[in-house]
Sequence to fold (374 residues):
Amino acid sequence: MITVTSPLLPPLEEFVPYLEKIWESKWITNMGHFHEQLEKALADYLGVEFVSLFTNGTLPLVTALQALDIRDGEVITTPYSFVATSHAIWWNGLQPVFVDIDPVTGCMNPERIEAAITSRTKAIMPVHVYGTPCDTTSIRRIAERYGLKVIYDAAHAFSVSKNGRSILLEGDVATLSFHATKTYNTIEGGALICHSAEMKQKIDYLRNFGFEDEVTVVAPGINSKMDEVRAAYGLLNLKHVDKAIARRKEVARQYVKGLKDTKGIRLYEPIMRSFINREVQLNYSYFPIFVKEEQYGMTRDELYEKLKSEGIYSRRYFYPLISTFSIYKELPSASPENLSNANLVANEVICLPMHHGLSEEVVEKVISIIVEKE
Ligand SMILES: *Cc1c(COP(=O)(O)O)cnc(C)c1O
Fold:
């Protein structure tokens, strides 16, 4: 069985010494030695100044809105994402407002953001879809003009940079997910990236019940701390992630070469561009293709099932759209007419198996099923 992702697992024998240290110290959670080390190592690796570790990639999104004091009103976001993006808004008692995407990148269309702004709008929560940077320049300009906060869901964008500068430096804050399915993982885990020591302090209180010191609670914080075992695992995995990303890039090249002339299969332009133009460094977290039924002669779902029958488990990321789930579908912004590109793309997309452990033979097999349709 070939799955769409496979976790980057550090060699077990390399992990044992870390575990021995933890057992020796008897410090297993609450900002221990490895926790501190991982925050520093990640800041260094990612090229950012302030990293706060979390127990997953969803709670940094929830906490970001609290750290930025967004207590009521609307947050403009995208329906073309993992459901956690909108849930973070919902959990803060705020109203998500969906806007349409650019069909080429899958990221929010800035013109649609501007058109959706009302007197109740407080923030914008865009997603760097598949690790492709949003149009951050336009989003910054809009945010400045209307006095809005920007929270980037960068769950897919670990290590992504533009002109040598980390994409995580964009916006007021950015969040990462270190879930097992992501390019870099700590089994479960995540981080919130910010740009001042003061903000990091606030975030660090919020992820630990709001404790400022032993006897002072300054905010209704939640418990979203990362433990020592996962911090150590993360430190070790950081040594292996470059090699994993390099292998992902080779897999992407092989897919592009094998699929680029297949009628009715649209490839993802940002990935193809990344082979020619080195301005944006991607991490090849996903390999989406878009099935044009009329030219290809098969629907997206037929191809999905065909692959499955051959033991290849692709994923329809992102389908269904967040705006179609019962929690959100009654919102005025959730109407399909408002989200025509998102609907189109969601109905055409398949993310093919993409991870560091794929062999050339397996990738070739996936390609030949798609090309030969049998
Ligand atoms: C994975 C993901 C999340 C949530 O991260 P978890 O670590 O699973 O909580 C949020 N947003 C996007 C876009 C994701 O892909």
Notes: The chain has two domains: 2-98+107-238, 242-372. Residues 144 and 150 are 10 Å apart (CA to CA). The radius of gyration is 21 Å.
